[in-house]
Amino acid sequence: MTTAHLVNHTHWDREWYFTTMDAQVLSEQLFTEVLDELEKNKDANFCLDGQVSVVDEYVDIHPEAKDRIQCLVAEGRLFVGPWYTQTDALIPDAESIIRNLVIGMKDTERNYGQPMKVGYLPDTFGFNAQMPTLLQQVGIDNILFWRGTNFKRQVNSVYFRWRGLGEKEAVAVDFPFGYFTGQITPDSKKKITEFVKERYDPAIKFESEHGNHQDVLVPSGIDQMNIVKDIGETIKNLNEHSQYHTVLDTYPDFVALVRREKAKLPVYQGELRLPTYARVHRTIGSVRHRIKQQSFALEQKILKVVEPLCVIGGRVGIHIGNGLLIKLWKKLLECQAHDTLGGSVSDNVAVDILHRFKEANELADGIKNMVQKKIAEFLHLTSSQVLFFNNEPYSYKGKKTVKVVAHSKHVKILGMKQQEITAMKYHPRRKHILIMTSKGEEFRDEPEYFELEITGHVALPGLGYKVFNVTEEKSELPQLQERVSVENQAISLGTKKLLFQAGKINLIDGKREVSNILSLVDSANDGDTYDYSPLSDEAEIELPFKSARVLKSSNGDLLCVKGTAELPATLADYSTKDPQLATLTYSFNLRFDENGQIRAHLSVDNQVESHRLRLKFSPQIETNAVVAQIQAGYVQTTNKTIPENWNEEFVEKPVNIYNFDKSVTLAGENKHFTFWGYGQKEYEYADQQLFITLLATTGELGKPNLAWRPGRASGDTTSRGHIMMHTPLAQELGTNEFDFAFCLSDKKFTEAENNKLTRQWLVPNVSYQSQELNYFINRLDNKIWETDGNPEIPAEISLLDLPEDIDISALYPSYTDPDSYILRVQNLTRTAKKIPEVLLAKGEVVNALEERQNETEVAPYDLLSVKVKL
Q: Has residue 567 got a pLDDT over 60?
């Protein structure tokens, strides 16, 4: 006889159409009743949704509840963690997902007891193919989830072994009918016979038949739902009416039960993103793009600027407390829950999300400011010196951009080659300015000055800093100069040339010319904050480029291309004979870098509602192999044939639109084309053209009966008692900025070379100048005062210099040892890599929780952490 293992839980969206503050009001009543019921009924247990952040917020308003929670966790009847927040699994960086687990598990252990060691993600909109690998970084060998499976096309079992791209696996437990499969409400208790016959037993039957299982999981709970009172009596009633036997269980115990049968389970490898039994919102990767863009930018700022700076600072006696760094991470992780990062939220919530990004950036910039200024103070630097940082553990030779404040443009940085002014801001003279001197208050005139952005070539030590002197010169530094306008505008690098001709951007490489390699395309969007939806009979159109100019530079010329388009102003204007039009204005800045990549900045003034804007690349590569860089690996996507009657199998159209993390490549036999994004997360490959979504704007939270998503509206907006919820902020009107890079190569694509180019694409410029002309270029300079007794430190240091084929995903101060730092090595190739001896000599191999491990090499598509002594 099949046994149903019922687990009582609540699912807790931190925010959705309601705010985080609203959710805390709901927790006031619900969490209190959970504690009361568990203390009253010793047979009961309960799962608080696998994210500790909501428990922390409850304890903030109920500090007396902490002891009660600790007791119940110790008894194994209340389950908290392992996540800090319920992460999205397709859009965040791999390191964000790992750190979500690390912070969540450490917070749970410190405050409440042992975290639930279950990879519990009950409502996430699909999963990247490396989730087993990421979970294993903290010793979790399982995942419980809903959404994304197809038992005909993937694996015919609700329980299976999910293998990452390398060697790591997780025992996967799917509940195909959702986390509310066995939802028991007061109404269902009254109508127990109907509930069991129509809902409960059919679900158990389906799960048992898909894999021939005698034990099946039945989660019982739903969004913000309370604990089931008198659970023993409820289970007794279920057993009286059901043809199956039900027992009360917990997620960890059920995972242990499945784990014992692991050898018999089928194996699956790949992403989980098919909309068979539940929607996965395959086009959510472009909704509210500003949220996704800010998430990516903040990840890069933390991982490549703030945390490495704290390691360098720790080496010279500047210690930033882990509490501040963790607070910074928490601000980011609160923006990466699945609804939040997806963007399927009300405008009221979107305002909160953007405010959290503002707060997080203030923390990040402040920490950076503190470390840089204190190091400059320890070095006794003057305004005629600049401190360059290299935050990567490799020595560096190449182009860097530095900001200098000076009285004139007659300056030169000694040790920098081919330097020129690439941006400038002029500040005129100010009269009668207060100055505090040793005599007291004095008033003097403040002379004019310039904020200069200077670009040139430098050499820097690995993971360290170096001081450069700034001198006054007789002549000004060269600046970008505009060429005299000619018919064909072009920039070049060696045999490569990017040419604007007859309104198109063409790429010439030797004898080969690729016409119209880059264009912009636009279409109406009849969708909502969950999905793009095409408008019937409306085709995607290519937008015109109207003018171009070239700015000449010793560091590489700049091609500036501009255009405008008049488009239907609103969705309604697409269906009228005399539509009102609105203007979309756009401009590209394009240049070659030293590696042959074309780096691009696109500015779009969007005055058009409800449309989708995409980049279109036409590199003339015939291939079916599209290689997407995802979290800690690469996957190859191939377009699937979509049957005309797709809605008989799927609840939304399984369109060939995919997510990526940092790059997408069209891999030909002996050539390839690669796109590198900076916050763009969605691509499509069709007719030998690569499309990258920039934005998909909408005015509705959820809409019913979309072309690709029939039936009810997502977001509950057509549920009983709910309203259609307008989202004018999701129209993303005004200025939108995008950065990206691309390259056409005559070489065969290799992961190792792409890893190197991706790293170079994302490497930041980090420098600092002690100056008194403007204290607000670095916001805290005005309040970080010099202190007595500072240590003497060298003018140049290097903590580490690794071979360039060793890829680092994170470098940050240890959470357990103030005299150490963590270096996370990632292997994004199919071949195992040895940990360099210099690392093994300096430290020990650990997992992400800093628990000692025995490995000395990084398996294919895997990560390994090394704890290194400062």
A: yes
- Residue 23 near residue 13 (C-beta atoms within 8 A): yes
Give the confidence band of 401 by pLDDT, cuts at 50, 70, 90: very high
Between CA 82 and CA 109 the distance in angstroms is 9
DSSP β-bridge partners for residue 417: 457
750, HSE (Cβ side, Cα atoms, 13 Å): 8
Beta carbons within 8 Å of 462's beta carbon, 6+ residues apart:
390, 392, 393, 394, 395, 396, 798, 799, 800, 801, 802
Q: Which residues contact 18 (CB under 8 A, 6 or more apart)?
A: 346, 349
547: Cα separation from own chain's centroid: 35
CA distance 517 to 554: 25
The answer to whether 850 touches 867, Cβ cutoff 8 Å, is: yes
Q: What is the pLDDT of residues 124-151, one digit of tens each?
A: 999 999 999 999 999 999 999 999 999 9
Pairing of strands 734-745, 598-606: antiparallel
CB 636 within 8 A of CB 626: yes
Beta bridge partners of 627: 636, 665
**DSSP annotation string for 68-113:** HHHHHHHTTSEE--SBSS-B-SSSS-HHHHHHHHHHHHHHHHHHTS
* Joined tokens for residue 678: 């900076």
Of 540, 525, 580, the C-alpha closest to 703 is 525
Give the predicted TM-score (pTM) of the model: 0.97
- 811 in Cβ contact with 822 (< 8 Å): yes
